[in-house]
Structures are given as structure tokens and as C-alpha cells.
Design brief:
Blueprint: E1 5-6, H1 13-24, H2 27-34, E2 38-41, E3 44-48, H3 56-71, E4 77-80, H4 87-95, E5 98-101, E6 118-121, H5 128-137, E7 140-143, H6 147-161, E8 165-169, H7 175-183, E9 192-195, H8 198-208, H9 214-220, H10 231-234, E10 238-242, H11 248-266, H12 268-274, E11 275-277, H13 283-296, E12 302-306, H14 312-322, E13 327-330, E14 336-337, E15 342-345, E16 355-358, E17 366-372, H15 378-391
Parallel strand pairs: 1-7, 3-17, 4-5, 4-6, 6-7, 8-9, 8-10, 10-11, 12-13, 12-17
Antiparallel strand pairs: 2-3, 14-15, 15-16
Length: 402
């Protein structure tokens, strides 16, 4: 019987390697590495954070998608949503003949998928319900779910098995968080509550300590909690987890606040028995955040963060940078208009707004910091560097100044 579920590729890595390199590698990024992550010319110095761009999970997902197209050249290949949150990568897959199924309203329209199709599950994973629907259809499934995401799922599943509510620090609408939350429902009585930030976490703490109104609480978190969520019942035993791409510092602070609230309300012994916490930020997210912190310790005049506007880890990097230096989150190198000297960017904390700034690159000698989200390919990082220098009328390939 033909296998219909694949998680480890098809042994075609060497066959797609050249194509992946041609599509996503960047000469300027290589040059930056060769010069201690620094290029300087025409009074402009660009410093690249030491950790940036594609992480292992993203590389794996994109590699498997390319392998899938090679393995099934004559079959319809469907991708459930975006493979990762980068428009260039998703556009490249479309050009390769991969159909991207966009979620509508409550979810995907599975009537558009047949048993003859090959369906790619993205790096974020899918909900248990989505997975069961796909298995019932009988199509071939290529599962590229990131290993770091799977680790969170195991943690949330263990919370549900042991009678703990999963308190998830994340964006409730994000594909990964939706998939993670569904793991809490594997066992009878399983429950979850998603909090976006410390402000929402403090509402949870207030309720635990007896300062909340039940009806107001239920209404406030109706869209971000499991069906039938009852704070009087489900906040008695709590296990904290998080979307892997959130700001690590905030996730840890939220866990500490909730644990302290339970101890204040019920005592240390109760907390020890009824509160669990586990840092589920992935190592790649943490490494990129740590590298940005190291870069910010140096004198910088401006910071560029390159990555999809809907990329959570990119937004976290931009938020870190904006605390220290004027920061521009750009989705695409073309956001830097060399001729007009402007930049289009997404302000930190704005979900839908895009702005344009004049004179974003200060006159005179200037130091520009640069980093990129875990779903940003090297060629787009390199193109961004080239446009920074071109704004001053110089080439990034000129000998670096020392």
C-alpha cells in the first residue's frame, strides 16, 4: 500500500540543492561574513547581527516543499496557507505550480482537495481537526511542521493529560498558536487560554487573586479561549507555554507573574502542585534575539529589520530594536527607494499600518544595524544592504573602509 504521510522528505535534497541556492543565497551576505559582519563605504557602515535569516525549521520546510514538487511533477500540489511568513518564498512556490489554499472565515475549504492531491502542511503545523480532515480525504500529506513547534505541542498535551489548563503566550489568530491550542483538547476536559501580552496576563493574575469579574473575564477572552472556558474552574491548575516566535523576555515574565499570583492566592505548596512553566521559545528565535541585543550594545544610528509583516519572530526583533534606536521593519528591499531617499515600513506595534519616511538615513557618517527574521532568505538581506549603500550613491561591493 502506498504511503500517504511523509515527514522526512524524499531523499531528493541533492537534486533541489542547486535550485534552492539559486533562489535564496546572497553574495553580499557572504561578503559580510568574510568581513566580520561589517561593510563600510561612502561614509556608510552596515553591521549585520551574527544570527539572522533562515533558521533550520524554515530551511527544512522550504527544502521539503521543493522536494515535493520534484517528487510529484504530474500531481496537483496544494499548500495549506503559507509555508512560512515570507512573501518571496510563497511567490516562488506559486511560480513552481504549487497551489496555496487560503483559509476563509473559520478555516480551509476542504472541498477543493481531492484524494489525488499532494498537500503540504506548513512549518507552523495545523490543528488536530485540520489534520484529521486531511487524513479522511486520503490525499498524500507532506508534513513540514517545525520540530520546535512539535516540542510545544508535547508540552501542551502533557498539561491536558494531567488536568492543567494551557495558558499560551501568543497571537490567537496565528497559525502556530491555533495548532498548539488544539493540542490542549486531546483529553476530556482539556482547556486553553491565549494571552497576547503582559497586560492580558495581568488580567489573568487579577482573576486568580480574586479581583476579577467572571462575566467580564469570559467576555474579554471569548475569542481566545477554549469552548466553555470557566475561569473559576480552569484557572485552578495552569501550565504556561508560548508561541515559539514571541519575545522571549516577555514570555518568561508572564510565566513568573502567573506563578507568583497563584502563590499569593493559595500559598507556595499549592503553586508547586498546580502551576507548571516551561520555556518553549525555539533556540533559533532566542539566538536571533540575543544577537540583536549584542548588536544594539554598539553605537548605531538606525536599525533595519527585514522580514514579512506577518512574521511573528520578525516583529519581535523589531520591538527589541525600537527600544534602543530608530527602527524600520521592511518587508522587502524595494521598500528602500534609492532615488527618493525614502523607506516604506511597518511601525512597531501596528498590525496593518504602513508608513513612508523621508530622510531615514541621516546625513554624514552613519552606522546602520541590520537583522532579519527567521523566514527571510539571504538574497533579500543582501539586496537590502545593497540599497542602503546605493542611497548614498556607492556600491556595497567596493573595498570596505578600515
Amino acid at each position: 500500500m502506498e504511503s500517504t504521510y511523509f515527514r522526512k522528505g524524499f531523499g531528493l535534497k541533492t537534486e533541489v540543492e542547486a535550485l534552492l541556492s539559486a533562489d535564496y543565497s546572497g553574495r553580499l551576505v557572504d561578503l559580510l561574513r568574510e568581513h566580520d559582519y561589517t561593510l563600510a563605504a561612502g561614509g556608510v557602515t552596515v553591521r549585520l547581527a551574527h544570527e539572522f535569516g533562515f533558521c533550520y525549521g524554515v530551511e527544512r520546510a522550504v527544502d521539503y516543499a521543493y522536494q515535493t514538487r520534484r517528487k510529484f511533477p504530474d500531481r496537483r500540489v496544494v499548500l495549506l496557507g503559507e509555508i512560512i511568513h515570507n512573501p518571496h518564498v510563497n511567490d516562488k512556490l506559486r511560480q513552481m505550480g504549487v497551489d496555496i489554499l487560503v483559509a476563509e472565515g473559520a478555516g480551509f475549504d476542504y472541498t477543493r482537495i481531492s484524494p489525488d492531491d499532494v498537500v503540504i502542511i506548513p512549518a507552523f503545523g495545523v490543528t488536530i481537526g485540520d489534520f484529521e480532515r486531511l487524513r479522511a480525504i486520503g490525499c498524500v500529506l507532506v508534513d513540514t511542521t517545525c520540530g520546535s513547534v512539535l516540542n510545544v505541542w508535547k508540552r501542551v498535551e502533557s498539561y491536558a493529560r494531567d488536568g492543567f489548563t494551557s495558558l499560551i503566550h501568543g497571537k490567537h489568530y496565528h497559525e502556530e498558536t491555533r495548532a498548539t491550542a488544539s493540542q490542549a483538547l486531546k483529553y476530556p476536559g482539556g482547556a486553553y487560554l491565549v494571552v497576547r501580552d503582559m497586560a492580558e496576563a495581568r488580567m489573568v493574575c487579577d482573576y486568580i487573586e480574586g479581583r476579577g469579574d467572571r462575566d467580564a473575564f469570559v467576555a474579554r477572552f471569548a475569542a481566545t479561549s477554549s469552548d466553555g472556558f470557566d475561569p473559576d474552574v480552569h484557572l485552578a491548575r495552569v501550565g504556561v507555554a508560548n508561541q515559539t516566535t514571541m519575545l522571549a523576555r516577555e514570555s518568561l515574565d508572564i510565566a513568573a507573574e502567573v506563578g507568583a499570583a497563584m502563590e499569593r492566592a493559595h500559598g507556595a505548596e499549592y503553586r508547586a502542585a498546580n502551576f507548571r512553566s516551561f520555556d518553549t521559545i525555539c533556540s533559533a528565535t532566542q539566538d536571533r534575539q540575543d544577537a540583536v541585543k549584542a548588536l544594539l550594545a554598539e553605537p548605531l544610528d538606525v536599525m533595519l529589520v527585514v522580514g514579512g509583516y506577518n512574521s511573528s519572530n520578525t516583529m519581535s526583533l523589531a520591538a527589541l530594536c525600537a527600544e534602543h534606536v530608530p527602527t524600520y521593519h521592511v518587508e522587502d528591499p524595494a521598500a528602500i527607494d534609492v532615488e527618493r531617499g525614502t523607506v516604506r515600513y511597518r511601525p512597531v506595534g501596528k498590525v496593518t499600518e504602513e508608513r513612508e519616511a523621508d530622510g531615514w538615513l541621516p546625513e554624514g557618517p552613519v552606522r546602520v544595524g541590520l537583522t532579519a527574521g527567521a523566514s527571510t532568505p539571504n538574497n533579500k538581506i543582501g539586496e537590502t544592504v545593497a540599497r542602503v549603500f546605493a542611497t548614498r550613491g556607492v556600491s556595497a561591493l567596493e573595498p570596505t573602509e578600515r
